[in-house]
Amino acid sequence: TKTEAEKPSSCNYTGSIGLFPVMVFLAATVATAVLVELLPHSAFFDWIPGDKAKLQDEPPTYAIYGHSSKEEHLVHVVNVLERFGYRRVGLNESWNLLWAHDYPFFAMPHLKSLPKNQSVNHIPGCGYLTNKVDLCTSRLPFLPRAFRLPQEKEELLDYAKDHPEALFVQKHIEHRHIKVRTLSEIAFGSNDTFVQEFIQRPFLVDGHKFDIGVYVVITSVNPLRAYIYTGDVLFRYCPVKYYPFDAENVDKYIVGDDYLPTWEVPSLRKYYNRFDGSMRTVFEAYVRDQGKDPSGIWPQVEHIIRTTIAAKEKDIINILRSYKTHNFFDLMRFDLFIDEDLKVSLMEANMSPNLSSAHFKPNSLLYEQVIYSVFNLVGIRPLKATGASYLAKTGEMLTADKNLATELNKCAAHDCDKSCNKEECDLCLPCLSGSEYRILQQAHQEHLHRVDMKRLLPPPIPQPKEYNLLEETVNMTKRNAWMTRWFYNKCQFDATWCN
User: Fold this and answer.
1) Do 253 and 392 form a contact (C-beta atoms < 8 A)?
2) Are 217 and 380 in contact (CB under 8 A)?
3) What is the pTM (predicted TM-score) of this model?
4) Distance from C-alpha of 405 to C-alpha of 394, rounded to nearest angstrom
5) Are 77 and 83 in contact (CB under 8 A)?
6) CB within 8 Å of 208: residues ≥ 6 apart
7) Helices 434-448/478-493 angle, 10° precision
8) Distance between CA atoms of residues 370 and 452, nearest Å
9) If we measure between CA atoms, which residue out of 140, 167, 141 comes closest to residue 156?
10) Helix (H, G, I), strand (E, B), or coil: what is residue 236?
C-alpha cells in the first residue's frame, strides 16, 4: 500500500487556471473553517442548510460493514435498529449510522471527513485498547504480567526465576491455542504470540472457574467520556470443574464458545429461574451464601476500566489528529477475572463483542438491552423521537443554553461577556467555540438518555462536599479537567449529575 507521500497527487496539475487563484481559493477555505470554529456558539448553531427541510421526513438509515458475508452475529443490532424505524442501505449509499463489525478505517478512508449527520460505531485507534498484545503488556497493576515475544524473552526468564510458583499461558494475538505451558514448552521465537502469567486460586462457583464481561461505551475522546452498562454482566463458566487442576484440559480454565451458562450452574438455578435474578445478582447471592461480601467487586471493575481507557487516551488522540470530524463511539466488552479473595484482574478488551445469541437464546434479551442503551446514549433513538423535523422543533427544549451554563458568578466577575482572554472564562458560554459548545451539548444529551448506562469518565463524584476538584484534576489533560469541572458544576445543583 502506498503511503500518502507516494500516491499521485492531483494538486500538481493546475491546467489553465493558474497557480495563484488556486492558492487564494485554498487559503480562503482554510480561513473560513478556522473562523467558523472560533465563532461563539450562537453564530455557529443558528445556521441551518436551506435544503434540510427536504430531508426532514425521510427515515434515518444504517449500513453494515464487515469482512464476513454471514450476519448471524448482527441479528440483535439489526432488530433494534429496525424497531427504531431505521432503514438499511448499501455502504455506497447515504447512511446515518455505519455499524462496522470489523475495523473500517483502512478500507474506508473517507471516514476521515464525516458530515455531522453520520456516525460510526468504532473510534480510530481503538486497537490500543482492544489489541491483546498492546493492552496486556501495558504494565498496568491489575493486568497479569505479560511479555512480548521474542523481544522480552530474557525478562520472562528472569521473572520466572524470581517467581518459581508462577504458571504461564502463551496466547496467540488472535486468541487461539491458549494453554498453560511450562517454560520449556514456550515457543520463544514466535512473533504472533505473547506470554502472560496465569492467575491461580480463582473464585469458583460450584467448582467452576468463570470470567465476567462488562459492556462499556466510549462516546468521546479529548475530552474523555465513557459509560458502563449496569443492567447486567455477562458471566461465562468453564464447562469442567477447575479441580483437580489439569493443564491439558483447557475446559477447566479457558472459557470457550460452549461455556456453561448461569442457568445451568446448580447453585445459581434457583435464583435465576425461580426468582428472576440477573446474571450479576444471582452471582452476588451465591457469594453471600459463601459468607463473603460481593459489594467490593464492582468498584474494582469500574476503577480498572476507567484507568485502562485513560491510559490509552494519548495514543488514540494521536490517531484522531488526521480525522476532521469525530462522529465516533465504541462499544467494547472488558473481560475480567475474580480470584478467591474477590480481587479483580483485567484479561482483555474486545472490539465488536459477540452479540449473538445463537449458542444461548436467553442471552438475546441482555444483548438487545445493551444495544438499546448504547443507541439511546449516542443519539440513535426511535424514529418518532429522532426524525429531523422533530429534532428541529424540540432540540432546544432538551438542551438550551441555560442547561449548559455554569460558573455564572465567575463569568460575571471576570467580564467574560466582554473578553474571553482569561482562563476563568473557559466554561462561560459567550466564550465557547463551536466545538466546545457541541461537546457540552452532547454531554448533556448523553446524561438525559443514559437508560442503564453509568458514567465512568469523567469520574463520578460520590461525595460532592468532600470532593477536591483541584486535586482530582491536577494530573488530567487540560480538556479532561475542563470536562470534569463542568460535570462538577452541574453536580452542585443536581445530584443526578454526580454519578
Assistant:
1) no
2) no
3) 0.88
4) 19
5) no
6) 237, 238, 239, 240, 241, 242, 260, 265
7) 50
8) 8
9) 167
10) strand
Query: What is the per-residue pLDDT across 96-105, written as a single tens digit (0 to 9) for each?
Result: 999 999 999 9
Where are the extended beta strands (E) located within 133-224? 146-148, 167-172, 179-181, 193-198, 210-220
d(CA 16, CA 164): 76
Cis peptide before 150 (omega within 30 of 0): yes
Computed over every residue of the chain, the mean pLDDT equals 88
Q: How many CA atoms lie within 13 A of 489 on its CB side?
A: 18
What average pLDDT does the segment 310-328 reach?
A: 97
Q: In this structure, what C-alpha cell is assigned to residue 390?
A: 422533530
Helix-strand-coil split of the chain, %, nearest 5: 45, 15, 40
Please measure the distance between the N-terminal and C-terminal CA atoms of the chain and give it in whole angstroms. Answer: 46
Can you tell me the mean pLDDT for 85-107?
97
Residue 38 has a CB neighbour count (10 Å cut-off) of 12
Query: How does DSSP assign 12-40, residue by residue?
Result: G--TTT-HHHHHHHHHHHHHHHHHHHHS-
Sign of the C-alpha dihedral computed for residues 53, 55, 60 and 64 taken in this order: negative
